[in-house]
Specification:
With about 350 residues, this protein is mainly alpha-helical. About 70% of the residues lie in helices and about 0% in strands. Helix 3 packs antiparallel against helix 4 and helix 11 packs antiparallel against helix 12. The longest helix is centred in the first third of the chain and has 30 residues. The two termini are about 35 Å apart.
């Protein structure tokens, strides 16, 4: 009872901002289900009843398939939610940066996915072109599905980055002084992390039904980031890292037994988690001391790039190009080049600039 009164007291102090954030997130969940109903229904594979607009396995394209396994889609719900956010940001909040970046993101997806899929489709429809010259040697090691995803991500990221650069003059650090207390942030973290881990690593129908939907999973982090002193950095670093590192441990230590358990838990989970958690609190302290957004972004980019790159590299058994090539080697080379490239660019971006006001991410 005391804990409830404590939370109620502090929530009351920031009722307007927190209530608006919670209401907005719950409204997006409602809009999601409207879009799901309008665009992703009916879905009844047993009677071959699929939505009019459908992108997975469909009897309309494979009428003679005996083992077709259509899967439910949710793009309609996500489309409605995204459109609602863009309209709300522009028409209600008058936030030019937010709605413009939303549209740039739409453009990036509209360009990236078709172009990425074109690579995979070209390979599937022109097999003979890959039986000669360099391709005859390279093709057996190419994972074209991964190449599609890599191309999609590269184009999406480049487009969104271009949009951000073109709108860079609209970026304004926000000075936040009415933070929610650290105790409330800790309570929100204590609620979110078990639910996140349960969704990722356990088969609990009740939790999956609630927290497996990304919009619902994002309610606590977004609410906490809105007025939290520590949460913006915790969400970006240890909270994001935890399921990724956990999956690495599950694959390499538990399933494959590819490494000594003590060493595997240490280097794939405990050490990275300690590093990024310490970095999160250090970044928060530096922000209070007047660290510029540019300096924070530069350092955080380098840290995140190498932590996630190395975990991914380990997950796929270190596909070094001088070892026997596998389907992961070409992508490993691409991401290695990108990791070094991002690091060099981040280091080159270091330059003196006037002190900026405190910022919230």
């Amino acid at each position: 009872m005391k804990s409830l009164k404590f939370v109620s007291k502090y929530v009351g102090n920031y009722r307007r901002a927190l209530t608006l954030t919670v209401f907005s997130m719950l409204a997006l969940v409602g809009v999601y289900f409207i879009g799901l109903f309008l665009l992703n229904k009916p879905f009844d594979p047993s009677n071959k009843a699929l939505p009019m607009l459908y992108f997975s396995a469909d009897w309309r394209w494979e009428p003679d398939a005996a083992d077709l396994k259509p899967r439910p889609e949710c793009w309609g719900g996500l489309l409605f939610a995204l459109a609602t956010v863009i309209v709300y940001a522009g028409a209600v909040r008058k936030d030019a940066l937010a709605w413009r970046l939303g549209l740039w993101g739409v453009l990036g997806g509209a360009l990236g996915f078709p172009l990425g899929q074109c690579l995979q489709a070209f390979h599937a429809w022109n097999r003979e072109a890959f039986t000669q010259g360099l391709w005859a040697w390279l093709d057996p090691s190419m994972n074209w599905w991964n190449m599609m995803e890599t191309t999609y991500g590269a184009i999406m990221g480049a487009t969104l980055g271009l949009g951000l650069w073109l709108n860079r003059n609209r970026i304004r650090p926000v000075a936040v002084t009415d933070y929610i207390p650290a105790e409330v942030e800790a309570i929100l973290l204590a609620i979110h992390l078990p639910l996140l881990l349960a969704v990722e690593f356990m088969a609990l129908p009740a939790v999956d039904a609630l927290y497996d939907l990304g919009l619902i999973m994002g309610i606590i982090p977004i609410v906490a980031v809105t007025r939290g002193r520590w949460w913006p950095y915790l969400a970006m670093l240890p909270v994001t890292l935890l399921p990724i590192a956990g999956k690495t441990v599950r694959q390499l230590v538990i399933r494959e037994e590819a490494i000594n358990p003590v060493l595997g838990w240490a280097i794939y989970l405990i050490v990275p988690l300690l590093v990024v958690t310490a970095a999160a609190f250090w970044f928060a302290r530096q922000a209070e001391a007047g660290q510029s957004a540019r300096a924070f972004t530069r350092r955080a980019l380098i840290l995140c790039t190498w932590v996630y790159f190395l975990l991914n590299f380990a997950f796929f058994h270190f596909p070094w190009p001088w070892l026997e090539w596998t389907g992961r080697t070409p992508n490993g080379i691409i991401f290695t080049i990108c990791a070094f490239g991002l690091t060099v660019l981040a280091l080159l971006a270091k330059r003196q600039e006037p002190s900026s006001p405190r910022h919230a991410l």
